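Next up, a chain.

===
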Amino acid sequence: MSRTQLKSSPTDQHARRIAQAIAKGRPPPFNAAFDRYCESSPREIFAAFAGAARHMPPAGKDEPLAIGYLFLLQRLLEHLRYRTDQGYADAAKLVADFQADVVAQIEAGNIDGRMLAFVGGALHQSKIPASPEFAAASAEQPLDRDEDGPLPADVHAALAGILEACDGDPFMAVGALTETGHAMPVEARGALAGALALAGNPEARGAAVLFLLDPNSSVRRAVAGALAQVAASLTPTEVRRLIAMRNWRPEDERAEVDAIIRKARTAGIDCAPWQAGSLEAIVATAVDGATAQGFVLISPVGRKKRISSLLIKGGIADAWSGEPESRRRAEMSLAAAGMDTPAIAVSRSYLDRTVAHQLALCIEKQEAPPFGLLQVAETIGGADWQPARVAFAETLAGLIAEVPKAMREPAALASVLRNSNEFAELDVVAQSWFEDDPQIAQAVDKARGRDLAKLATFLLQSVIARHRDRWAETVLRTALWMREAPQAADLCWRELALVAKALADGRDMTEIGLMRDIALRTIAALGASGRM
């Protein structure tokens, strides 16, 4: 008599594959099929969390598999965050319901504080703020607390342990502290950063400097106040870091950094020069439909390679530098990082202009870039990155001036615009170019049953037309990116420059083949995801 075996779900299968890859020292198997699973299965966050809790010791007996579920949970949450960024209320509600469920589990005694911390880390990696209830539950975990402050009584010993585990690397230490402290109340996080500055430990003070780029302005101001008290004890390297990041902070927060620098210089502390570093290659991905673009930087370190990464999306979204690794491992890391998205080698000047523009966008939103940007700057041997917007009109005019006059003649221009959806170089690049927000979904739903071509025309003349400037910028950025390729590649950057100008000039979008394809792709994407 055969025993019935429970069939594993796709969520279980993905978690096992991830765990197996990690066990073999390979990157998790994230690919296009996996992304489709994440997009179509948002409610699986509950199953992924349950799987992690079920297998994580001490309650469970398979920590590697539990870690696989946590990796899966993080990616599912990240896809939900993309949806919340687009304004979908159902995605925001699902994230809120998930955090409430985790809080209920901790209150019922079904999970312990360690599991709660793991979930907090997944939220941090997904860039999802912890809910007030989640933060309160984290703060209530059994710790011996000082009656006079918001931090545990043994905080100094705990911080010293983290610094020791990170071998004194301030970037690694702050990365660990930021992830584990993601669910802490802002007051406690500010106190944590201040405690680092006032700990009397040079390594802790070095880590505190990096908290001047914390995502929360209250934390940034708290650590600035603490550092001002110990400015005379800063090192030349820390002074250099303060100077480098000064203009990366919102304008109304720069005076605090200036005061720290003045006190340090008055105490006779010089500014250290940038350490030696170099760049072997810079690879940039295409600009996707959400305006995101990735950079991979490769730096030689003896016979090894160090990979750094930047992600830009309306600012500097992420930045980090890895440890030196063998050429073979570096090649494996590169293969796992991207690359489903087209990428080309770009110049240092292209990188510098892009970073400067994205820093300006951060400042305009009263945000600071991630502290990893400073680590990347140091890895490549110094970078005088200052916030400076790229002027759209001036940049577009410069490209248009390089387009042959014959291509700009009325008949030739009309042909370029009409056939702009047939550029071979855009076949893969433009696959992510579609609209995805509640207004578009509602408009498509109301127009259900219309002829496909008529529906595309309707969208181009209504909701998509209202996003004309965003698409003009995306097309212009793509033209600039393609222009970085070798001349022999003969990519279609000139044609895209003409499309960007047509959009900026208010030309009817129905006359532009590329925009008609975007409308059709939008209809298909909303239908495939079940949001029509």
Q: What stands out?
A: The beta strands are 281-285, 293-301, 304-312, 316-321, 343-345. The chain is about 55% helix and 5% strand. Confidence is low (pLDDT under 50) at residues 1-5, 143-153.
